[in-house]
Design goal:
By secondary structure, this protein is mainly alpha-helical. Helix content is about 60%, strand content about 10%.
């Protein structure tokens, strides 16, 4: 192994030349700061294993908070807190039926995001 790999240090260029054409291309294609912020906030939601577990339950069925709590062996209160975050971020939706609210994935993008993440972490 090379020294930079052993020390876990990022390799840097030996030259300080700036490639202006590449910088211009990057600047032109970079999304607006607000969009970057919103995207970062979305990915923060996926940073909690309880929320990921809830999403996996919702991959299989439309269920109420009590069903999710039972499936994950957690309290209704803890699940409700996480459902609120998922709903605020438009990852899930709720449908009222009598006294119950049944939750489901907001759309297929949620399933795709998780699938892409799983594929990425399983790469060698």
């Amino acid at each position: 192994m090379k020294d930079y790999e052993e020390k876990n240090i990022c390799e840097t260029c030996e030259s300080t030349e700036v490639h202006e054409n590449l910088i211009r291309f990057v600047e032109e294609s970079m999304p607006a700061e607000t969009e970057l912020y919103d995207l970062a906030e979305l990915f923060k939601v996926f940073g909690d294993s309880t929320r990921i577990r809830i999403l996996f339950v919702l991959f299989e069925a439309e269920v109420c908070v009590y069903d999710i709590a039972e499936a994950l062996n957690m309290t209704q209160s803890a699940i409700s807190h996480q459902l609120k975050i998922l709903k605020q971020n438009k990852l899930i939706k709720g449908r009222r039926e009598g006294k119950h609210i049944f939750y489901s994935l907001a759309d297929d993008h949620v399933r795709s995001i998780i699938a892409e993440g799983r594929e990425h972490i399983e790469e060698e």
